[in-house]
UniProtKB/TrEMBL annotation:
<comment type="similarity">
    <text>Belongs to the class I-like SAM-binding methyltransferase superfamily. TrmB family.</text>
</comment>
<dbReference type="GO" id="GO:0043527">
    <property type="term" value="C:tRNA methyltransferase complex"/>
</dbReference>
<feature type="binding site">
    <location>
        <begin position="190"/>
        <end position="193"/>
    </location>
    <ligand>
        <name>substrate</name>
    </ligand>
</feature>
<dbReference type="Pfam" id="PF02390">
    <property type="entry name" value="Methyltransf_4"/>
</dbReference>
<keyword id="KW-0819">tRNA processing</keyword>
<dbReference type="GO" id="GO:0008176">
    <property type="term" value="F:tRNA (guanine(46)-N7)-methyltransferase activity"/>
</dbReference>
<feature type="binding site">
    <location>
        <position position="67"/>
    </location>
    <ligand>
        <name>S-adenosyl-L-methionine</name>
    </ligand>
</feature>
<protein>
    <recommendedName>
        <fullName>tRNA (guanine-N(7)-)-methyltransferase</fullName>
        <ecNumber>2.1.1.33</ecNumber>
    </recommendedName>
</protein>
<dbReference type="InterPro" id="IPR029063">
    <property type="entry name" value="SAM-dependent_MTases_sf"/>
</dbReference>
<keyword id="KW-0808">Transferase</keyword>
<feature type="binding site">
    <location>
        <position position="94"/>
    </location>
    <ligand>
        <name>S-adenosyl-L-methionine</name>
    </ligand>
</feature>
<keyword id="KW-0949">S-adenosyl-L-methionine</keyword>
<dbReference type="InterPro" id="IPR003358">
    <property type="entry name" value="tRNA_(Gua-N-7)_MeTrfase_Trmb"/>
</dbReference>
<feature type="binding site">
    <location>
        <position position="120"/>
    </location>
    <ligand>
        <name>substrate</name>
    </ligand>
</feature>
<feature type="binding site">
    <location>
        <position position="116"/>
    </location>
    <ligand>
        <name>S-adenosyl-L-methionine</name>
    </ligand>
</feature>
<keyword id="KW-0489">Methyltransferase</keyword>
<comment type="pathway">
    <text>tRNA modification; N(7)-methylguanine-tRNA biosynthesis.</text>
</comment>
Length: 211
């Protein structure tokens, strides 16, 4: 890590980290100094490229990113500092702790893009998507909110479709048979996705509506 990034981890990160030791505010938007329409959540943002892209296009939405990998957090901090961004908060730990802290119905969109695939059968229980996680997302997503999931591991994508699609609180929004093969226009390519494509793996893109 460069000295600049280490400095941002020491000085900027503590100012952007939600304090989970206190109750969350009833209106999550009050975490931010400027007026905002809604708050979005990204789980496992890697280096934060998708999060910064969404922020640049939707300045009226705030974003909370979760990522335990410190070098990734430091990369996002670099982007936040470069552009003087005030509408991003970072939980540098397990997303499940943050989700448990969030008020019901406080989030308008959730992004889970290329979560670690854990492709071996004996590793599958380490996967992030479980019925418990989906239930906790159901609680924090507002009605009409969106959940986006992508994976280059077809077994994981099928499992996510089954677990999320079987939850009565979510509806898969696909209109055409091959929708899952197409990344929507307001969804940029991520770093992990680029790697998967360069290695010949075609991702699945799944969008769900919170009913
Ligand atoms: C395969 S990478 C994908 C990163 C990024 N979304 C992309 O598409 O380039 C998965 C990321 O999820 C993060 N991750 C794993 N478990 C997590 C958890 N429980 N909460 C939040 N992030 C997690 C990992 O640290 C890793 O950076």
């Amino acid at each position: 890590m460069t000295a600049r990034k280490a400095g941002l981890v020491a000085d900027l990160l503590p100012r952007l980290r939600p304090d989970l030791s206190r109750p969350a505010p009833d209106d999550l938007r009050t975490l931010f100094a400027c007026p905002l329409q809604e708050v979005w959540l990204e789980i496992g943002f890697g280096g934060g490229e998708h999060l910064l892209w969404q922020r640049a296009r939707t300045p009226k939405s705030a974003l909370i990113g979760c990522e335990p990998f410190l070098n990734g957090v430091a990369s996002l901090l670099g982007g936040i500092d470069d552009h003087g961004i005030e509408t991003i908060r970072i939980h540098d730990g397990d997303a499940r702790d943050l989700i448990a802290w969030l008020p019901a119905g406080s989030i308008a969109r959730v992004f889970i893009l290329f979560p670690d695939p854990w492709p071996k059968k004996r590793q599958a229980k380490r996967r992030l998507i479980t019925p418990q996680l989906v239930r906790s997302l159901m609680r924090v997503l507002r009605s009409g909110g969106e959940l986006r999931f992508a994976s280059d591991d077809m077994d994981y994508a099928r499992e996510a479709l089954r677990v999320i699609g079987n939850d009565a609180a979510f509806a898969w929004t696909a209109n055409r048979a091959d929708d899952w093969r197409r990344r929507p226009a307001d969804w940029p390519e991520t770093r992990y996705e680029r790697k998967a494509l360069s290695e010949g793996r075609k991702p699945a893109y799944l969008c769900f509506r919170r009913l």
